[in-house]
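I hope you will forgive my troubling you with a question about protein structure. I set the record out below, with my sincere thanks for your time.
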Amino acid sequence: MSDTYLDSIALTRTLPCLAEPGRLIVIGRPNQALDEVLPYLAALPGVIAYNPDAGTLTFRRQPGFLTLYPDKVYITQVRDAAEGLELLAALKDAINAAWANRQSLAAVTAARRAPRPLDVYALLPQTNCRRCGEATCMAFAFGLLQQRRTLDECPLLQKEAAFADRRTTLAAML
């Protein structure tokens, strides 16, 4: 059984990144389909969405996102083609590392999706106290999802025993 899954991911195209003007979306093509390795990659941290039926897996990266399909890869908010090539090479290495360690990873077979703002908001105190620096708890929920805020910035979640379970749930969710 080989521990190398991919030999390469070729850069096939770049597009302007609409989310971040001046940046690119890099599109790559793996030398073989990623179907077999996607369930193992879905077990890694940073996954925000996984659809095993469609064969799509999305990771959050700073900045932007990395989305894998069986036959292509999209990386958003890339500076230039040179950085895109570096990221594709690093992704190939990460895929090969996950494949080599697949016996120690629990392959994910169920769909996963990123939490939505209302999912996070439902677990916040909903007092709109502004002590976190945001005008509302909903704004704080968006900040958490965008990783501009941390749970530690909500004093009520920190200090109130009544919110301990919610804090634990939010920490696992985020």
